[in-house]
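Section 3.1: Structural characterization of target chains.
Under the original work plan, the team committed to producing a structural model for every single-chain target entering the pipeline before any wet-lab resources were allocated. The record below documents one such target. The sequence was received from the expression subgroup and is listed exactly as submitted; it comprises 333 residues.
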Amino acid sequence: MTADVTADPTADVTADVWLPIPPDEIEGLPQGPNYLFWDGGEDGTQPYPGDPEDCVLYVVPYMKRWPVKVNPLEHMRNLRVIQTLTAGVDDVLARLSAVAPGVQLCNARGVHEASTAELALTLTLASLRGIPDFVRAQQQERWQGAFRPALADRTVLIVGYGAIGAAIEDRLVPFEVARVARVARSERTTARGPVHPLTELSALLPQADVVILSTPLTEQTKGLVNADFLARMKDGALLVNVARGGVVDTKALLAELDSGRITAALDVTDPEPLPPGHPLWRAPGVLISPHVGGPTSAFLPRAKRLLVDQLGRFVNREPLRNVVLTTGETDDA
């Protein structure tokens, strides 16, 4: 039977909620909704746990292929909320045309800051201190020392100063960096100092020894790191990308890496997954991790806390957290 949330104002808190984590493993879920487990299965062929038309809140499966995550949406005609377990929502945005007006899309702010910031720092330190070279030397049983740059006394530019960008700065401070510059879509002031608008990025790039990308992928940031951006980076600078692969123009980056003028540490790439034989694999001065900023032991407890809080708000008809947009509104992406 289809849930008629228009005729019955209480239907949306008593109908189905699809969760990618088994409900009995999430302590504190509020009573009311009918919780159903669905994560798409290993190969995306897991049957739906119920009629998609009865689903009013859909929690998107984590670390699944794009078609698996978005395929149910066109059948969820009574949907009220889409909750991702990722900070970025670009993959879901691409399928929102299948969703009725009035659906709130929420991201997972608060879930990935710790893990992603840790990885940003790890990639930065590993690249600066030459850890990949040491690993290769160890495999060849060679004792090979080197004089390497430290993170201390360096100027770091964070492009994308949201929750993850702030968490990255939290972890940079103890390393005695000389300065942290911050860039976001709009100008503002924080307790740590000013956040510069994107329009000032060109002037800040030549000053930075390390540029860390933590911006969401939007129409404004797609291809932001292009040939001009890279040319403005100082000689010997390090580019660290824990954002999305599409933020960087791969062809332009390869040209700079091949010249040896800059280095890079990438948790995300374009294309992704990076196929065998792609020139990025063997480009000089690049360290690549396979999009592992989020999936750590820190993920599950934070994801569960988010879901308990959001579902409590949903059941009690309180404003939801982390609302990115509401479908049908003029600012839809």
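Confidence is low (pLDDT under 50) at residues 1-11.
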